[in-house]
Design goal:
With about 200 residues, the chain is of the alpha+beta class. Helix content is about 25%, strand content about 25%. The protein has a single domain, classed as Class I glutamine amidotransferase (GATase) domain (Rossmann fold, 3-Layer(aba) Sandwich).
Length: about 200
């Protein structure tokens, strides 16, 4: 596993499908599209470089796995600044990003309910989930499967794109949207392991 904070990913995230195929899955968590679109050489020296979100879209189409986790710079994001719905990667996501600021802050807490317990992503995960303190709003695409919901909003959605698979989780895997009750949840590790294995084709 390679972990790249945003300031590292700006320069070191792979440029090609071939590089991406070293990995069974790619996880994007709270990293805006501009970070991957604007390499420092493009931003500071006007260098022409490949579109890494197009490479990531093609990687999924050719059998790769994609997970997008919610946050202020996921999906459309705060003030619409994450902007994934305006990039090539939107085709590979199992959801439609909403225009504008898609965040919903829920300081009183909101608990998702299970819609599709039989799906492998939820194997060994109880139907009683901890609460969350916020999330991004989106709509599941036609043909995608909603696994969790919160009120009228979709909370966890999976789908296929070409030969690949993708998963969208509306809330965060860390504070503040992901509270201690989620981070210390006995099935936290099981859930994320299931998610990565499923998008990776296992």
């Amino acid at each position: 596993m390679d972990y790249q904070p945003s300031h590292v990913a700006q320069d070191r995230f792979p440029f090609s499908v071939g590089e991406l195929k070293r990995y069974g899955a790619v996880i994007l968590s709270d990293i805006g599209s501009n970070t991957l679109l604007l390499h420092n050489d493009t931003f500071s020296r006007s260098a022409v470089l490949p579109n890494r979100l197009e490479a990531l879209r093609q990687y999924v189409e050719e059998g790769g796995g994609l997970v997008m986790i919610g946050g202020y710079m996921s999906f459309s994001g705060i003030d619409g600044k994450a902007r994934y719905g305006e990039t090539p990667l939107k085709a590979a996501l199992p959801v439609e990003c909403l225009p504008g600021d898609d965040r919903r802050e829920v300081p009183e807490g909101i608990t998702p309910r299970v819609i599709s317990p039989e799906q492998p992503v939820l194997a060994g995960v109880p139907e009683t989930w901890p609460h969350f303190l916020g999330y991004n709003r989106f709509r599941a695409k036609e043909g995608a499967k909603v696994l969790l919901a919160a009120g009228e909003d979709h909370f966890l959605v999976v789908g296929t794109y070409g030969r690949g698979r993708s998963l969208a989780f509306v809330s965060d895997c860390a504070p503040h949207w992901g509270p201690p009750e989620f981070l210390s949840w006995p099935r936290y590790n099981r859930f994320w392991a299931n998610a990565v294995r499923w998008v990776g084709g296992e």
